[in-house]
Amino acid sequence: MAITISPVRIADVRASFVVSERALARTSQVMYEMPLTEETRDIHAAHRTKKMLEAEVASANRGNNGQEEPTEKAFSFKAVDTETGEIVGVSRWTIFYQDEPVTKTLEEEAMQAMLPALPQVRTKALYAFRMCLERIGRKSVALPPLKEGEDLNSVKMRSKRVYLDVLAVDPSHQGQGIGKALLQWGLDEADRLGLITFLESTREGRPLYEKYGFEPTTVDTLELAPFGLEGSLTHTGMVRQPKTKN
Known about the structure:
Layout: E1 3-7, H1 13-23, H2 25-31, H3 38-64, E2 72-81, E3 87-96, E4 100-101, H4 106-112, H5 123-141, E5 157-158, E6 161-169, H6 178-193, E7 196-202, H7 206-211, E8 215-223, E9 232-240
Parallel strand pairs: 6-7
Antiparallel strand pairs: 1-2, 2-3, 3-6, 4-5, 7-9, 8-9
Helix pairs in contact: 1-3, 4-5
GO molecular function: acyltransferase activity, transferring groups other than amino-acyl groups
Protein name: N-acetyltransferase domain-containing protein
Domain N-acetyltransferase: 101-236
């Protein structure tokens, strides 16, 4: 199967959301009351579209103000099956070009990630999940590095980095090199900029990332029984050092 990698456009947002929902099925079950209705998918896609448009406007305004490079910028990519035209994989990245000041507590950042309230979201489970990711992030990219047992809310700065927010490949197309193709853009950009690459990996994704030079920094497990679900959800913070530095 031949695929092409290209930026996600506004018209692709809904299909990209569905790919992520299917590829990250276990996480989706924690975040949402499944199955999602078509109306819910439309609302979530509209929310992501709004965020994309706001980011594009902000980027254009920075350019108009004569700023050469933003402090951070988001990038989204799609993998398309050239035979069918179907989106079969997606990735979302944020590049933090400068060290990032931390102005909110873990709790405040977790709450901010949940706004606005969207339909079929498991509010308590999503909050706990966001807290899990916030803990991983602060432990992995804090400046200066945290000491053992140090309060996570004492972190005042996070390292500049290339951050992989999402990498998802449709289950029917996994094992065909699509994940590697979507990953490569971020790795190349991190090497070009001389920045670390950071992500939170599921158990299933970890072997791929280890293959491409990521090393584990911390593990965080969310027990799901308090939310009426079985089992647990484990994520590993992983960091890759750049191969070249400017």
